[in-house]
Every structure is written in structure tokens, then in C-alpha cells.
Design a protein that fits this description.
398 residues; alpha+beta; Butyryl-Coa Dehydrogenase, subunit A, domain 1; Butyryl-CoA Dehydrogenase, subunit A, domain 2; 4-stranded antiparallel beta sheet; 8 strands
Length: 398
Amino acid sequence: MEFSFTPEENSFRSEVRDYIAHQLLPAGYWRGMEGEFDQDHFEFSRLVARKLGARRWLAIDWPVEYGGLGAPPIQHMIFKEEAAYFMLPGLDMGIGGITWVGPTLLLLGAEEQKKRYLLPLASGEEWWCTLYSEPDAGSDLANIQCSAVLQGGEYLVNGQKIWTSAGHIADWGLLLVRTDPDAPKKHHGLTLLMVDMRTQGISIRPIFSLAGYHTFNEVFFDDVSIPVANRIGDENCGWHSVMIALAFERTAGVMLTAAGRRLIDEMIRYVKNSGVGADLSTDTENFRPRLAELAIRVEIARLLGYRIAWLRSKEAVPGYEGAMIKVLAAETFQQIADMATRMMGLYGQLRQGSKWAPLEGMMADMHLNAVGIPIAAGTSEVIRTVLAERGLGLPRGA
């Protein structure tokens, strides 16, 4: 089987890499995986998104009429790989705007919805968040209680959401609500809506990450009116819609894999310059073989990403394939960050801004950020259940 890229694909990769490294990012830029929504950095994130949108790179594989270039999915994969390798902010227009909101709308949205929402997404103008989880509904997403009652031509929404990434900067949100509390099965009474985050009755409370960044939020809905035209699909059919959105969401493992490759490269440079583990007789923690093993895992995840690009070229929704790369990339990234801090000893705990921090303190941030990655978009336990049932065809447990 031939895994090589075409000359055109290699040329595009070089173009993206050169533009990001030499024209887009300031010298010495390093923000890591969080911080792009913090007040001090969000304007730069917005600037980056608009510049990428002007080139039609944000959603390069979307149809031209919706802001893309109609390019093959592998070309979008190449762009995401290179951009995530540089930890570029503004890639997803909030959390999920490009990765799963857009693809879900392309597949399920009405034509009016596509024209209204996809163009501002692809141009880098409107940012999105995802409003799924609640205090009593996370892994068991069908347990949500945030209610929406249809009154005339509007839904009246009341309830709470939690862990809403980018909710404080988002223009729009993808909102899962309960529209039939008497449905015989919990997942039968759900509906997926799009909500303007500036609507009266919405209040937002910040939740700071372990690394100290304002990424997450609690969001409260108090008699919030949402037009019925903002519904995706039919009423009470939201479970099907959100499962498609989650399938696309888990393909974000493609970008996480590229970020992991960046960390591996940084650690290789660190080892060469510091001599850590150079003497195998004193390498008591087996840094060298462990680093090699993690590099292999990153390459496996990368190939899974190419498989997803191939599936998208066939206009297929990546189901268990997205789950595969998500769990592998998330756990590998966490292992890389953990090993990196061990290799650096006590210096590995120093954050950005300290002159003594190795690699400008990037690994300390990565170590803190990585704690939640295997939980987001479905815990590793839930993902493995998805793989067992949908990938291997095993029966459901009792």
C-alpha cells in the first residue's frame, strides 16, 4: 500500500508550514494548548482565525459556496497537522466550530442554516461553543435535564450546562436540550438547537483550568427564547444529531496527535542538549526506550488520522474510527507530558515566564492540561465501550 503524499500535497504542506512559521506567528511564540481564550491572548487568536479564513484554510475541504475551497479532506488534514504542530490558536473557531459544528450542519442542516452559519465560521468571524454536559449528565449524556418548551415559533429554555469550553467568547452555541420529558427512553426526547450566546437570559460563570486559564464555564439559561428555525433536524431526534456531532468531535484527535509530535520533537532536542538518559547505565527510568515507544504511538495515531481523511473523501461519517484516534491520542499525549516533566526533574514544574524553566515552561503547562484530555468528548472508558460495540461488534454489557 502506498502511503506517500503527492507532489502537490507536499508542496501545500510546505506552504502552510512556511506561512505559519514566518508570517503568522511572532518569534518565540508558544502558548501550548490553552490560553487562546484568555483576555490577554484572545485578540491574537481572533487575528489568526481571520487571516486563515481569508485564505479559506480554516475549512478548506468545505464546498466553495460555504466558505471553503472544495479541497480533498487529505488537504485539510495536512493543514490541521501543521497548524496544531505549531500550537496555533483560533483553529476551531472556539471549541468545535470547524471540527464538528460545521460538518454536522453540512450533513444535517437546512440550506438556510448552512448559508447563515457556515460562511462566518469559515471566514473566522463567528466563534462557537458546545453546550452538552450538565452537573448530572456527562458520560451519560442522555440524562440531561435542561428543558426546552415550544411556545409558538420559539423554544423557551431553562437549565444549566457545565464545562462549556469557550462559552465566554463564543457568539453561538450548539445546545442539547430535553423537549419531551415523558419519552419512554431518555435519549428519545432530546433536541439539538443553535443558540445566540448573547440572548437575554443567558449567564456565564467562569471555571479555571488546572493551569490557571479561563477555558471552561458554567452556563445558565433562564427563560431563554430560541427560534424554532434554529433547530437542527426534527424535534426529539437530537440524539441522532448529537451522536453524529460527537463522531466528528472525536476526530480532533488528529490535532492532538500533531501536538504530541511537537512535544516529542521538543523532548528529543532537550535530551540531545542536556544529556538526560545519554548514559544507559544511569538511565534508571528508561527515558530513551520510553520516548521511542511514545514516538511510535504518535505515528500510529497519525496513520489513524489519515484513515479518517480517507473516510471523509468517501463522504462517510467517522464513527469508531474517530473514537480510536481520540483515545490513543489523548492517552499518549498525557503520557508524553508526564514523562517530559520527569525527565526535567524539579525544573519541569516551572511555568512560562521563569528564566529557569526548560523549554520556556511548556511542559509544565502540558502536564496540567493533559489531565482532562482523556475525559473530554467521552472518557477513555466510554470510548472503549464505543469501540467494543461499534468497532468490534461485541454485545452490550448487562
